[in-house]
């Protein structure tokens, strides 16, 4: 969604409020009695948590005691109210005093008094489950303090089918195991703090162009019949796009947001196969389904096909509840379905004890030092060293410095100030020409911040801590071919030339930006950053490139330049980003980030068909015919060598991985909240324990260099040749990140579950473990896998 864009105003106009339904007709029936017969209605079946069962019973009781009008009223969401992006009406008998409050995410609260965390893609690049959890728990603490029940906050769709996807940075990774582990721990981190984990967008929301029709007036909403239709076969859906959602749901996620796009010809938010058959029945989702803002189209399609709440900006206006009331009264929608929608909202509310949240106030100061330190740790641990040549004192870490020169507008404070990034970015995103430190992406998924540590301030501060304080100069110039026109302080080319003569290391800061509502139009660096890098590298033999970007960028013009001695990829690093960059560059922190995507040698190596960027028409189609062969799996299949592969990242030390072993593991692995109804077949027979463990794989990681540091050991699975679906040669199925003192070693463990070994069978409508020989490979990237072992299930 996007509520804060000035261009959105045009759309809000037609909103109307219908007369409330009269209270005379329908009387309340017992939810328990009517409920169990309708598909998708929440029952106590499969719950493993007593807390949730009690919450469900309490919710059912509350609903049974409501009048018809009260029920209708509660399903009628208000728009932007009390600072919430959406709000239900109060429900005093449930203790809901002001309404249940939905608030934007995922990098932080839409308030300058809260912390701006690194983006999810940045978080994924840490490959550190403890950090996934602490980010979630720090975020949740801030949402709790403003009284927001439900951050609209955890993104695993878009996954990142194409590197051009405009919102990929809001999510973790297109690698379903990595995204699944990240979302599982994130859901737990949120809900352990009593905040509802809402996971979005379900599903097939892999592009911005035509996400809900063509740009019209502004760029946002238009004719629904121009909305992109994601055609995704059932195996690809289960194995890739839905897989992280399954992990989130099994961890007890209380909310799911359905997406704008159509799935196989029907809007995702009005699609029975998507919301009832898959989400509520097969995955046993225990919470409520909320539409994205404006993704509700018809009352009956939404109400009957699995949506519980339609948010403000529905094409019919913000009046869903009243229509729903009419539809119940005229017999089109069973009252048990209306009841279920409320039960599904109140169950997580009670399970997480949200009656104890404070009153809603988005102006409350909730940022904290603890949050800032988590934000910095993630920024530091995510930074990915892609190239380094430290010969003769060049490259990283920086040492023996007298003069350090920082070049590029991305080293400077954000051009439009730290508070206005959401609005101003609308005008810069399409042209990729925003200047200043880019700590976050833009749109509803970005967030303001109390401060931002831009690189110049951070390197200046860090330089002062050296025994001989470093002289740090900043040159906020961009494209030399354009005569450095963008420099705010009138510096010109001769200034920079003279400075390079005595600089010991020259860091070139460049960026690329991304924003909701637009796909990336180019993978090139903003403001002709390639030209700036080449200009400096041609003149200085210790040119270090630092990139802030939402995803892959084109490095082909300069990556092999002999004077480019190091490259740091920093993603969108949040308010502490500059400080993290300085700490890594000066060697206080040894870089340990690993790419959660592939960087190609040539952008033509990416799957060019993986996004529909064609003309506006009626019923445009995005055919996901590449199946699960996305990102590194696509490169592996094509036999194309990437520049930097998925999972890659260098360090200031060296590691060795050895001693691979594999043993059976029979440990059960019960769901924390509710078991799914997914089926498992072994040797043609249905069996149980899809999520139970099957094997334990161990390996030893040793720090063989002279600097302390962390390494990410990665396990990839190869399926037997007989596997029914054509599976990629390597599939990530485990990772572990030990921190090792120089010279020390540690044994790491990967636990493979039955589901990790299974593929989806369309015929059986369930998961099947193929017979034949599996292979596990362990190493330090998707293409550096020195160890392997085979086994049969
Ligand atoms: C719902 O109740 C609130 C008062 O709590 C009232 O202001 C609002 O108009 C009601 N909406 C409908 C559709 O009845
Ligand atoms: C598409 O939607 C617009 C707006 O509702 C409508 O005018 C047009 O007739 C529709 N086109 C088709 C082919 O259904
Ligand atoms: C419900 O979803 C199915 C697809 O699962 C679709 O065919 C049908 O038209 C939808 N019904 C409504 C009322 O939108
Ligand atoms: C019942 O009410 C709903 C909501 O207003 C409307 O969409 C539907 O067409 C109505 N059905 C009948 C049979 O009147
Ligand atoms: C560059 O800037 C310096 C200092 O402001 C000035 O003396 C010089 O004339 C400028 N050169 C050009 C080519 O504009
Ligand atoms: C840094 O620059 C100063 C001044 O040019 C020089 O004396 C010193 O040797 C340089 N240090 C390194 C490590 O190159
Ligand atoms: C590398 O930098 C030096 C200046 O330090 C320059 O003389 C040389 O031409 C550069 N090399 C290349 C290949 O541009
Ligand atoms: C990238 O690939 C395209 C198309 O194959 C080719 O024309 C171009 O020269 C390549 N660019 C580089 C830098 O290799
Ligand atoms: C769509 O993407 C392809 C591949 O990147 C590109 O060649 C083409 O120009 C794009 N078309 C539009 C309309 O943006
Ligand atoms: C999608 O692509 C596949 C494979 O190319 C093709 O068989 C199928 O007909 C396409 N579906 C649509 C709706 O275009
Ligand atoms: C250069 O880097 C290697 C590891 O890549 C490290 O072992 C070595 O100490 C570094 N050399 C210097 C001079 O810093
Ligand atoms: C590194 O590990 C390999 C096995 O992967 C082993 O053969 C080799 O001896 C190890 N080297 C060192 C320096 O530990």
From TrEMBL:
Keywords: Carbohydrate metabolism, Glycoprotein, Glycosidase, Hydrolase, Polysaccharide degradation, Secreted, Signal. Pfam families: Fn3-like, Glyco_hydro_3, Glyco_hydro_3_C. Pathway: Glycan metabolism; cellulose degradation. Residues 1-18 form the signal peptide. It is an enzyme of class 3 (hydrolase). Beta-glucosidases are one of a number of cellulolytic enzymes involved in the degradation of cellulosic biomass. Catalyzes the last step releasing glucose from the inhibitory cellobiose. Belongs to the glycosyl hydrolase 3 family. This is beta-glucosidase. It comes from Rhodotorula toruloides.
């Amino acid at each position: 969604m996007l509520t804060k864009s000035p261009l959105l105003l045009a759309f809000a106009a037609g909103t109307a409020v219908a007369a409330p339904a009269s209270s005379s007709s329908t009387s309340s029936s017992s939810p328990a009695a009517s409920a169990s017969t309708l598909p998708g209605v929440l029952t106590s079946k499969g719950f493993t948590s007593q807390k949730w069962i009690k919450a469900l019973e309490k919710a059912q009781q509350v609903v049974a005691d409501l009048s018809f009008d009260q029920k209708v009223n509660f399903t009628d969401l208000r728009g932007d109210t009390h600072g919430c992006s959406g709000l239900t009406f109060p429900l005093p008998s449930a203790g809901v005093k002001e309404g249940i409050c939905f608030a934007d995410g995922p990098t932080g609260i839409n308030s300058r008094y809260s912390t701006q965390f690194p983006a999810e893609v940045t978080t994924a690049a840490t490959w550190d489950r403890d950090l996934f959890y602490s980010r979630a728990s720090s975020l949740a603490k801030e949402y709790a303090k403003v009284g927001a029940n439900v951050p609209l906050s955890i993104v695993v769709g878009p996954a990142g089918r194409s590197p051009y996807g405009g919102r990929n940075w809001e999510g973790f990774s297109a690698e379903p195991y990595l995204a699944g582990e990240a979302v599982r721990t994130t859901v737990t981190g949120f809900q352990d703090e009593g905040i509802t984990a809402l996971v979005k967008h379900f599903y097939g929301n892999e592009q911005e162009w035509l996400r809900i029709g063509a740009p019209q007036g502004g760029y946002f909403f238009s004719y629904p019949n121009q909305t992109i239709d994601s055609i995704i076969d059932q195996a690809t859906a289960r194995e890739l796009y839905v897989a992280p959602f399954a992990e989130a749901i099994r961890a007890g996620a209380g909310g799911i947001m359905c997406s704008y796009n159509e799935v196989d010809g029907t809007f995702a938010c009005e699609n029975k196969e998507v919301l009832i058959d898959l989400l509520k029945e097969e995955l046993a989702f225990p919470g409520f389904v909320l539409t994205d803002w404006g993704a509700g189209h018809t009352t009956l399609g939404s109400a009957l096909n699995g949506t519980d709440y339609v948010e403000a900006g529905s094409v019919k206006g913000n009046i869903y509840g009243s229509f729903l009331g009419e539809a119940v009264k005229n017999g089109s929608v069973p009252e048990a379905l209306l009841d279920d929608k409320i039960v599904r909202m109140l169950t997580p509310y009670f399970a997480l004890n949200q009656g104890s949240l404070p009153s809603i106030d988005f102006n409350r100061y909730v940022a904290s030092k603890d949050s800032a330190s988590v934000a910095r740790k993630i920024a530091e641990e995510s930074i990915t060293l892609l190239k380094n040549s430290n010969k003769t004192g060049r490259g990283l870490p920086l040492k023996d410095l007298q003069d350090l020169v920082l070049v590029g507008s991305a080293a400077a404070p954000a051009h439009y100030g730290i508070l206005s990034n959401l609005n101003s970015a609308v005008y810069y995103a399409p042209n990729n020409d925003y200047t200043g430190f880019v700590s976050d992406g833009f749109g509803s998924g970005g967030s303001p911040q109390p401060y931002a540590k831009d690189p110049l301030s951070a390197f200046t501060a860090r330089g002062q801590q050296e025994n001989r304080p470093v002289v740090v100069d900043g040159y906020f110039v961009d494209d030399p071919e354009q005569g450095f026109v963008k420099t705010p302080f009138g510096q010109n080319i001769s200034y920079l030339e003279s400075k390079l003569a005595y600089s010991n290391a020259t860091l070139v800061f460049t960026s690329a930006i991304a924003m909701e509502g637009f796909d990336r139009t180019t993978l090139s660096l903003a403001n002709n950053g390639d030209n700036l890098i080449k200009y400096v590298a041609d003149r200085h033999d210790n040119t270090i490139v630092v990139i802030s970007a939402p995803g892959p960028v084109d490095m082909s013009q300069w990556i092999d330049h002999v004077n480019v001695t190091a490259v740091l990829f920093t993603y969108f690093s949040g308010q502490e980003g500059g400080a993290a960059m300085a700490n890594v560059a000066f060697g206080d922190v040894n870089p340990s980030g690993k790419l959660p995507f592939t960087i190609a040698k040539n952008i033509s190596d990416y799957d060019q068909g993986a996004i529909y960027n064609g003309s506006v028409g009626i019923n445009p189609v995005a055919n996901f015919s590449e199946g699960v062969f996305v990102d590194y799996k696509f490169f592996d299949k094509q036999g194309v060598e990437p520049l930097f592969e998925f999972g890659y990242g260098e360090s200031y030390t060296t590691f060795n991985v050895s001693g691979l072993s594999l043993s059976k593991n029979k440990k059960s692995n019960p769901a924390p909240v509710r078991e799914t109804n997914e089926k498992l077949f072994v040797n043609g027979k249905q069996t149980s324990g899809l999520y139970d463990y099957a094997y334990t794989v161990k390996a030893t990681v040793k720090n063989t260099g002279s600097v302390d540091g962390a390494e990410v050991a990665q396990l990839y699975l190869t399926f037997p040749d007989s596997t029914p679906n054509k599976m990629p040669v390597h599939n990530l199925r485990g990772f572990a990140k030990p921190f090792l003192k120089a010279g020390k070693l540690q044994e790491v463990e990967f636990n493979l579950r039955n589901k990790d070994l299974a593929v989806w069978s369309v015929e059986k409508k369930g998961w099947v473990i193929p017979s034949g020989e599996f292979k596990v490979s362990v190493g330090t990237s998707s293409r550096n896998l020195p160890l392997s072992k085979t086994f049969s299930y």
